[in-house]
Amino acid sequence: MAAQDRLARIRAHLQAIDVAVYVASEASPAASPDPDKLATVLPPPALAFLAGLANTFRDDVRALHITRLQRQLELDLCSSLDEAHASCVFRNGPYPDGDAWTIDPLPEVLRDRRVDIGDTSPARTDELVAALNSGAQGVQVDMDDGHCPSWKNVIHGHWNLLHAARGMLQGVQSSPALLLPRPRAWNMDEEHVLVHGHAVPGALFDFGLHMFHSAAHLVATGRGPFFYLPKLESAAEAGLWARVFAYTEATLGVPLHSIKAVVLIEHILAAFEMDAILYALRHYSAGLNCGMWDYTASILSKFRSFREASLPDRQAHVSMQTPFLAHYMHVLLATCARRRAPATTGMVPFVLAQATPAEAAAMLQKTRAAKTHEAIAGSNGALVFDLSLVQEVQEIFAAQATPREVEATSMPSPRDLLALPRGHVTMHSVAFNLRVVLAYIEAWGRQDGVVVLDHCVEDSATAEIARSQLWHWIKFEHPIHATDLVVSMALVHALLAPISDAYTPATRRLTLHLLHVQHFPTFLTSFLQSQRLLWQ
């Protein structure tokens, strides 16, 4: 970073100038965004809007982080896992206007939710164009799990997004899929833009820029603005988003309640407040999405202090039909059915391009079985990464065009959602998780947010569960099945040694640090950002 940029950051922090906005540059020209794209994405009026958004909600965002820390401390101070679990209860009202409410009707264009393309970083231009042309209903334009937020990627991604919203992105055909940007989660800041001496929250930066540039056009054409909202932990956080939406609509002159958003239920605490989350966003809701790996990782994260909160070999013991995940999906589907909200399920991670015919056939069979099960259960759709799976998954959900009404009787208990499967930790599971973490961190070092391993896409969600399992196994010295060994840093070093040359020194160092650190980093992406990986 240039000396003048460092000075500007220091001065902004010290003086806390009311409306100061500093746009920092990278030290390396190769890592810096194109100047013309930067000027297009961040003209003075856009910066002024971001400044107003950040200043208006600074205290709310600070309160969000304090509440999260307080809740974590409460769980850490529990004397047992049973006591921690007892503090988790469903929140289903009462509501000021009674219990007969439903979400507002959706625009016609958003009612078919069969297939969205997932993990599509706007910085990967060719993939974004292909996704928009895929025939899917929507594209999750991903600035969170599937995106590496280097400054160059951020600016290039928003440049692509604003052109895609106007139908001006080269190569996009007529009648493309809908754009559903997923802004960064609240844990990530945009450190290159300071307002009032503070980095702008990545969530507000990504949401705000898309709204500033494209909301009016999307409303005029009836194609948005629509969003995915990641990693909410409570209905209070959904309420914050509702206030952000209302403020933005009023400030930009967008008709009230034009924004629609799908909330990703990818945190265990949010699972207990799904009904209240829909209520908080009832005028803005486009339903809920049920994932797997971020959600499962959040259980390990929240109950990090307890040995019993351990997950065995996830490849052998974890799927959406595993009881704790099946119960979570049932609650989500029943909640959405009751409130007339769309319910969608997780992303098919398979990448068929380099697979053998036998491997591809096996992956297709797994896809059909999983998505048929979800469609019959009441899901309205799902996500895929591989575009070749779009038609296959569309047909599965089309066959259940009128999903059965999900029974709300005999609902699972909170304990049902917390009962992790029993099973073994295997040497294979340790080695596989280590490969995922190494590959993901290595990809981040290349400014890429996804990597394909063994014909599956790995993003921050799968990297989260991989590193969470490893950290937990190391901390509690879990025995490895059919051996005399326990999981330890010594074992990690031994597994790393023969493959170390395949990774950069930074990747190896950060992986070892991540697994050895005493205090569990709540978010992998925040850890990598704090370690300045993108600036090395």
Spatial order of strands in the largest sheet:
4-3-2-11-10-9-8-7
CATH superfamily of the largest domain: Malate synthase, domain 3
Mean pLDDT value = 92
Q: What CATH architecture label of the largest domain applies?
A: Alpha-Beta Barrel
Structural class: alpha/beta
Largest sheet: 8 strands, parallel
Domain Malate synthase C-terminal: 426-497
GO molecular function: malate synthase activity
Keywords: Glyoxylate bypass, Transferase, Tricarboxylic acid cycle
EC number: 2.3.3.9
Task: Characterize the structure shown.
The model is unreliable at 6-20 (pLDDT under 50). By secondary structure, this protein is α/β, with parallel strands linked by helices. The protein has 21 helices and 13 strands. The protein has 2 domains: 58-88 and 111-290 and 321-418, Malate synthase, domain 3 (TIM Barrel, Alpha-Beta Barrel); 427-535, Up-down Bundle (Malate Synthase G, Chain: A, Domain 4), CATH 1.20.1220.12. Strand 3, helix 6 (151-165) and strand 4 form a beta-alpha-beta unit. It has an 8-stranded parallel β-sheet with strand order 4-3-2-11-10-9-8-7. It has a 3-stranded antiparallel β-sheet with strand order 1-5-6, sandwiched between helices. A two-stranded antiparallel sheet has the order 12-13. Helix 3 (44-76) packs antiparallel against helix 8, helix 14 (357-377) runs parallel beside helix 15 (390-398) and helix 19 packs antiparallel against helix 20. The longest helix is centred in the N-terminal third of the chain and has 33 residues, at 44-76. It catalyses: glyoxylate + acetyl-CoA + H2O = (S)-malate + CoA + H(+). The active site is at residues 182, 459. It is an enzyme of class 2 (transferase).
